[in-house]
Amino acid sequence: MIPEQLLLSYNAQYKNYKKGEIIFSENQTAHNYYQINSGVVKMNNYNDDGKEFIQGVFYKEQSFGEPPLFIDVKYPANAETISESKILVISKEQLFKLLHENPEIHLKITQSLAKRLYYKAIIASEISSQEPSHRVLRFIDYLKNDVYKIVGDFSFRVDYTRQQIADTLGLRVETVIRVIKSLEKEGELKIIKRKVYR
């Protein structure tokens, strides 16, 4: 999102994380901005029974965990690597300096946060009122059309696992597996080498 060279010019540092490593935890104070150079990161919570709820999954060139930096609150979720990851980290103070001196970047951050709010509203609506097949298809369409802006039938590969889709939508993984097979029979999805395409 923010050009790497620009971040580095404001004293950002690369940090390497192993798979399954916690970057920050729920209720910690936010001190840094994080942007993925390589790897995959999820933000999640656990309920009292230990069930995971995935707030979001983030990939190369995406940032995560910014809202608490702007409103001085603690992190509402954990950030954990799904794979070995290399992440650019810059302090809150240096980030704010960068944004003040580069207003076009500030606008991009605002647009990114607005997209995430839109996504949260959609997911909340889907979880509360729709059938599992509708939830899964709507979630995949959101990723294809709104996040990655990919056009064409079966041109979008879903990088979420069945378990991650279940944890994001508040479903059981068995339900997601059944729904995906059903949607494939209906011609809504294709499964190629266990990967889902829309």
Fold blueprint:
Elements: H1 4-9, E1 13-17, E2 22-24, E3 32-38, E4 41-46, E5 52-58, E6 63-64, H2 67-71, E7 78-81, E8 85-91, H3 92-101, H4 103-129, H5 132-147, E9 157-158, H6 162-169, H7 173-185, E10 190-192, E11 195-197
Antiparallel strand pairs: 1-8, 2-7, 3-6, 3-8, 4-5, 4-7, 9-11, 10-11
Helix pairs in contact: 3-4, 4-5, 5-7, 6-7
Task: Explain what this protein looks like in three dimensions.
- By secondary structure, this protein is of the alpha+beta class.
- The protein folds into two domains: 4-106, Jelly Rolls (Sandwich); 130-197, Winged helix-like DNA-binding domain superfamily/Winged helix DNA-binding domain (Arc Repressor Mutant, subunit A, Orthogonal Bundle).
- 43% of the residues lie in helices and 25% in strands.
- The chain contains seven helices and eleven strands.
- The protein has helices at residues 4-9, 67-71, 92-101, 103-129, 132-147, 162-169, 173-185; strands at residues 13-17, 22-24, 32-38, 41-46, 52-58, 63-64, 78-81, 85-91, 157-158, 190-192, 195-197.
- The strands form three sheets. Strands 1-8-3-6 form a four-stranded antiparallel beta sheet. A four-stranded antiparallel beta sheet has the order 2-7-4-5. A three-stranded antiparallel beta sheet has the order 9-11-10, with helices on one face.
- A hairpin with a 2-residue loop joins strand 10 (190-192) and strand 11 (195-197).
- The protein starts with a helix and ends with a strand.
- 25% of the residues are buried.
- The model has no long low-confidence stretch (mean pLDDT 91).
